[in-house]
Amino acid sequence: MEETLTEVGNWKEITTAHKLPKDYQKAISSEEAHNWKMAIEEEYFSLMENGTWELVQLPEGRAVIQNKWGFDIKPSYKTTPSRFKARLVAKGFTQEYGVDYEETFAPVLKHSALRIVFGLIASLDLETAGYKDCVP
Asked: pLDDT tens, 92-101?
């Protein structure tokens, strides 16, 4: 694996010169198979630990929602080495509303709401945990 040093502003990162696998089969048959298998295991154990899903009996007349693995390499930064990442994603486009799901939840925050919250914090002279080091 060939590595090149790239400077972006104050950032120095090492990028690897190789192709990312497009699917599971290509990942486990590549030269970096050991790294991809470790990334897959890490993702799987994370999903299980977080209780992402539970196995149930497939109802009659229903199809299993397929999934696929996505692969990426997080570039190194300063003293942190490059890291192989694998993500298991559902092919949600095969789902039907009312059959496979009833509602979709995607939390969205409006900027005006955030400004109100920060305005209240400032006017009440409150401190925000975790943000005091970010604000000059």
From this structure: 777 777 766 7
Give residues with Cβ within 8 angstroms of 78, minimum separation 6. 12
- DSSP state at residue 94: G
| Collapsed DSSP state (helix, strand, coil) of residue 114 | helix
Residue among 76, 75, 56, 73 nearest 65 (CA)? 56
For residue 19, give Cα distances in angstroms to 25, 77, 86. 14, 20, 14
Q: Taking 90 as the threshold, does the pLDDT of residue 71 lie above it?
A: yes
Phi-psi region of 9 (alpha: psi -120 to 50; beta: other; left: phi over 0): left
Tokens for 16? 């690897």
Residue type, 55: L
Distance between CA 130 and CA 32 in Å, rounded? 38
Question: Given CA atoms 25, 27, 31, 34 in this order, what sign does their dihedral have?
Answer: negative
